[in-house]
Design a protein that fits this description.
alpha/beta, TIM Barrel, 8-stranded parallel barrel, binds erythose-4-phosphate, Aldolase_TIM, cytoplasm
Length: 216
């Protein structure tokens, strides 16, 4: 499973990048607002730091506007995935862009039928939002299982990018289903490393080692 960081904070991205476990980054307009940075500048900077796909979202809502913005975004770096919303115009833009060899991430997916459409439109990634479904009492993770089944039935190459990940349980369940990618806030990714028994075990081993008086 690939790990993408869901953030526009360059310092957080660099810190995770140092682990060697970061495969890409996703941004959205809300994350850009939170960063307080210039959109094009921050996306270019992220794409220079991370080798894998960096998603940058269009904000136009019509096909022509999306195509114009996509053209600006894809020129920023070779590893940009243009993020388009799961709307009719968004899927039309997805079809055109993927036909040109541009990576496309279709976002704001909340149903398996929407994911089916995105795959037919040639999306590189489909982003189903598990956390936001949980928020309205619909089990988000069930959507991931449905999409996995449908994509496997038809051998679609579109990667399932689990988005709106809020906790390590989302990551675990998505991995058990066989999602291709998950994107999460960096705090959630750091949580994956932690277990209290690891900390306790380390402390006990170090204490006993010190008592031996030996050195390596
Ligand atoms: C990523 O591509 C999505 O925009 C993001 O995961 C949404 O997360 P949120 O529902 O926590 O805002």
């Amino acid at each position: 499973m690939k790990f993408f960081a869901d953030t526009a904070e360059i310092a957080e991205i660099r810190e995770l990048q140092d682990t060697g476990l970061l495969d890409g980054v996703t941004t959205n307009p809300s994350l850009v607002k939170k960063s307080g940075r210039d959109f094009l500048e921050v996306v270019k900077e992220i794409a220079a730091v991370v080798k894998g796909p960096v998603s940058a979202e269009v904000v136009a809502t019509d096909y022509d506007g999306m195509m114009r913005e996509a053209d600006v975004l894809r020129k920023l770096a070779d590893n940009i995935a243009v993020k388009v919303p799961l709307t009719i115009d968004g899927l039309k833009a997805c079809k055109s862009l993927s036909g040109d060899g541009t990576m496309v991430n279709v976002t704001l997916c909340f149903s398996a039928n929407q994911a089916l459409l995105a795959a037919k439109a040639g999306a590189s990634f489909i982003s189903p939002f598990v956390g936001r479904l949980d928020d309205i009492s619909q089990p988000g993770i069930e959507l991931i299982a449905d999409i996995r089944l449908i994509y496997d039935n038809y051998d679609f190459a579109t990667e399932i990018l689990v988005a709106s990940v809020r906790n390590p349980i989302h990551v675990l369940e998505a991995a058990k289903i066989g999602a291709d990618v998950m994107t999460a806030p960096t705090a959630v990714i750091w949580q994956l490393f932690k277990h209290p028994l690891t900390d306790n075990g380390m402390a006990a081993f170090l204490k006993d080692w010190e008592a031996t008086g030996q050195k390596i």
